Every structure is written in structure tokens, then in C-alpha cells.
Amino acid sequence: MELNLEQDWKDIVHRCFRCGYCKFTYEFSDFNCPSYKKHRFETYSTGGRLWLIYGLISGEIPWSQGVANVLYACSTCGNCTENCRFDKFNDFLVDIIEAARAEAVINGFCPEKQKALIERIENSEMYNPYGEKNSDNEDLKKEYDLPDKAEWVYFIGCTSNYRQKNLRDATLRFLKKTNIDFTLIDEHCCCSPVMRTGQINSVKDFINYNIAQINNAGASKVITSCAGCYRTLKKDWLKFGADYDFQIYHTVELVKKLLDEGKLKFISEYNKTVTYHDPCHLGRHMDLYEIPREVYKHIPRIKFVEMKRNRENAWCCGAGGGVKIGYPEWSVEISKERLEEAKITGASVISSVCPFCKTNLSDANIKFNMNFEVIDLIEILDNIEFEISGN
Ligand code: SF4
Ligand code: SF4
Fold it and tell me: pTM for the whole thing?
């Protein structure tokens, strides 16, 4: 069900009693909220935002661009949901912020930069947030000799298809090597960027289009190598009333399944020290923490090390929630902090399972000369030899 600020959150938002736990991770005596850490002003913490939202709902605070800007200065990383001590309430914090953004859009206060996302996605030449000409993926289907109908659809996602093509191609090569029966569709944006920024008017049309494409391909399973698409297809599409009966997988789940069944065996070694960055959309938003770690640890001779803040406490890469497009300088500052944390582990490689995390970590790596190799797990697998049997 699509969530509405007035109807769904009015009776919940006042439960915040401004204890302030959402601003810190007690365990590390440090800030956990990128927004509060940057601005050091109560309104930029979740508790502060909730009181602002309460004021908006009750009419005590009028809408203005300044108020809306506070709502948008949040990467929707979900770290506050882990640290808010109020069990019957903490799961909703990011949903409430997103519902308030939708209200900001209705009232005409969506910030200008974030508006570009909906303008590009709704443009019939594009259907993606990067402003690129839409790829119907027919060329890729030919290049990889893919059928029109198949058991699986690889939902590439806009970031992989238009900005991280090596990650896309590594995924295609991996899927080909596994011999699974898969194809591609003419996909339009999954709508994660516009859902996160409250621009939800045409979301249902996009969902219905993508579902029809998947159904036309005869698929019973959809796989994606993007944490954002994974969360959106598996969780958000349902919130918007989607009706589908295919299953959704992240690539890493397929890799783990093949390893568990003994069908996949890594042959060559990866003699590097690697640390893993949990994407917010896979970890805190979907509770998928251990599967990627187990896959890394299967790779021969890899030295896998953890950053201090990991799993539910992981520091955000800074790209989500419209922050990358809205506040590009701040966005890479957040990633810089993640890379500094990775440096302490002695790792030369920082790896993740999300093209959006890869993009922002890479941007910070270049901008601040951090000298990491930033690489997705599926790209690591693309660089090593492995055997597939019985598939
Ligand atoms: S959101 Fe939760 S942790 Fe934060 S101030 Fe409100 S009740 Fe406290
Ligand atoms: S979602 Fe992340 S950035 Fe936004 S208020 Fe919560 S901790 Fe801060």
C-alpha cells in the first residue's frame, strides 16, 4: 500500500520522545547519522525531523523550501532505525521521512536538483534517471545470445546499464557461465530514485510496465545485481499495490545457492585483502548481511577483513535518498569517511554488491586520492576462474 503522511503516520509520528538515540551508535560512541554529523543541528536528526513533520501535519509549521530542504538532507540510510530504542516505532522512520517528501512534492517544494530525476524518468526517450537514451537491451540480448522467453529475467537496473557497464557485463558473463536460462527485458526505471525523493505520481505505471515485460518473458524469477533495485522490486513494488508471482533474487543469493549445492567451485586465487561495504538497501533495508560475506570467504586466498562499523552499524556510502544528485559534494564526503574507515583495516580492495555504492565510493576514491581498488563482488568473480557443474 502506498503510504500517506496524514492517513498513515499522523497517529505514529508523535511517539518520538526526542531521546536522541537515533543520532549515535552507543557502542562506538560516535555519530551514526550522516545528516546529523554534517549539520550538528537537532532538526537534521531523525527525532528533529519527526518533530518537524509533526508540526507540518498539525499545521503549526507552514511548508517552505527551507523545511523541505531539511527533509531531503537525509540519505535514507536507515541507521537511525537501528538505534532508535522504541521498538514499535523504529521500523517506520525512513518510511515517514519518504512520506513527508511526497507531501513536499505535492506542496511544490521538491528541491530543483532532485526534480531532474522524475523529469528524466518520465521522458519517453529515456525512462532512466541518468538522462541517457533508453536502452531496450535488444543489442545485449543479441550479443549474449539470449532467448525471448526464459525462466529468469536479469533486471539490470539503470546504474549498471548506464554508469557501471563493467558490473553489468560481469553479471551477464557470470549468468551465462552458470548456464541458467535467462533473458533481458526492455526495462524502465524500477523507480527507486523517485520513491526515495517523494516523486511518486507515475510510479504505478512504471511498475506495471516492468511487470508486464517480465511476465511476457515468461519468467518465474528475477535477478538483479543492484541493491537498490532489489529492495524496490521486493519491497516497494508491493507497497504500491503490485501484483506479481515471480521471485526476486540478488545475484549474491544465486552465487551462494550454487556454492551450497556444490555446483560452483572457485578455482583460482584472489590474493588480496578485501573489506566489504554493506549497501544500506541490502543490509538494513532487507536484512541481508551474511550471504555476501560467506561468498567472499569462499574465494581461495582472499583475506577478508571487517570495518569497525559493519552490518547494521555500517556507515552509509552517501549516495542514497537523492543525496548524490541533490548534494554531490556532501555525498562524496560521506563516502570519504567510509574509505578512511576501510584504510584502517589494511585492505587494498573495498568491495560491495551495489552499482550505486560502487559509483560513490569510486568517486570519493578518485577525488581524495585514497588509492583503493573499488570493485563489486560480481566483478571479482569475473576475474577468477571457477567451475560450474550440474546446472
Ligand atoms: S526517533 Fe527514536 S531514538 Fe530518535 S529521538 Fe525519536 S524516539 Fe528517540
Ligand atoms: S536515514 Fe540515515 S541520514 Fe537519514 S536520518 Fe536516519 S540515520 Fe540520518
Answer: 0.96
